[in-house]
Amino acid sequence: VNQVEVVRPRLVWQTRPIHHEPRPDDWAWLGEEDLARAAAITHPSAMARFVAARALLRELLAVSRPDLDPARLRIDSEPSGRPYVAGQPHLHVSISHTDGLAAAAVAPSGPIGIDVERLDRRDLPPPRMWLAPAELPALTRIDAELRQLALLHRWVAKEAAIKAHPYPQLAQRLGIVLTCEEGHRGASHVGERTHVRRAGDVADARATEEQATWAPAPAHASTPSGAPSYASWCGNGLARLDLSERRSDASPSSSSPSNGSQMPADGLHGSELLSSGAAPGGAPHGADPAGSASSTDAAAEDPSAVGEPTSQTRSLTIDWYAMADQFLVAVAMPIADGSR
Amino acid sequence: VNTEELRALIIEVLSEIAPETDPAAVDPTEDLREELDLDSMDELNMITRLSERLGVDVAEKDYPQMRTLEGAVAYLSGRLAARAG
What is the ipTM of this complex? Predict the structure, then answer.
């Protein structure tokens, strides 16, 4: 079953430092409802983060859609918390922030997910809480000293994947299997994508200094003690995810780690996946009521699919980028399925 | 474990995860992630610790029920009652 359409969005993403107080320039990017929301945030640090992320997102929207006035666009949130641009069903956005850095991404034709985390973060939850059983063998093959870094890569990848999921409220970490495909290795593939974040893509290039320091993550993953190297488990920072879309009434045990034997070893083919025809908590904004939607999740939005589980796999690529040994970013987006 | 003990345990766990905050002062019906500035990693750490200390499993699909203090108390009470049979 191949229900994933070819989507090659020209995405734009960027990061911006978060300071203790919002920068004056950032306020100028905000729309009216942004200002109202910012005014309602009591924590100064939370407000600075909100303002930085919103300003960055609007800046990227101006780059992606110069025909639109970014200040007039209304950014709202789905019940799942995912942001969207009101009245622009084909414009997909994602934001993320961590201590000291905000990240945003815009894709004009398909879902996009971005997640940023500090590389020195050490409070990852236990793997059994968020890794699919099929993912565990790959981790045991990694040097202990690099395992924490590998886990952090998987964490940001999953967070980004959930954000890029057509129905984020149905996405479950334990149902996402991250694998690395031989076919995606090679610097050329990374190079194809790096154009989306060149400095010229950003209308206001105040942050070019930090842009220059972003690099595909494996460049930072040296292996002091030799093989097996970190890079050996995941090529050039590209991977494929399969998203299990379980119906909300599926057996709770279907996501239990102890029940993972049904997963194939490579986590790629034949998983027992169910499509999600109905989305509790509201459909994503991509579900265009006018019926003109042509996004990749058209199959899941087909009303006739409700109640008829089908075997379905959604695949995304993950690109990782690291900055100055301080931050790690994962960008997730759907890919063409022809490489199967 | 009664409701008050459960509430105290949740506040204790939140204090561990977000030591710079005052979880006892949160509005029990507001989203903890916003009240205490928690991110998704903090949220999963909270669920992990509560699950371990109470000996109950929390299904991933139920995580949204634990996003407020009151919601977490109600959900975990239900789980504990179900276990007690």
Answer: 0.94
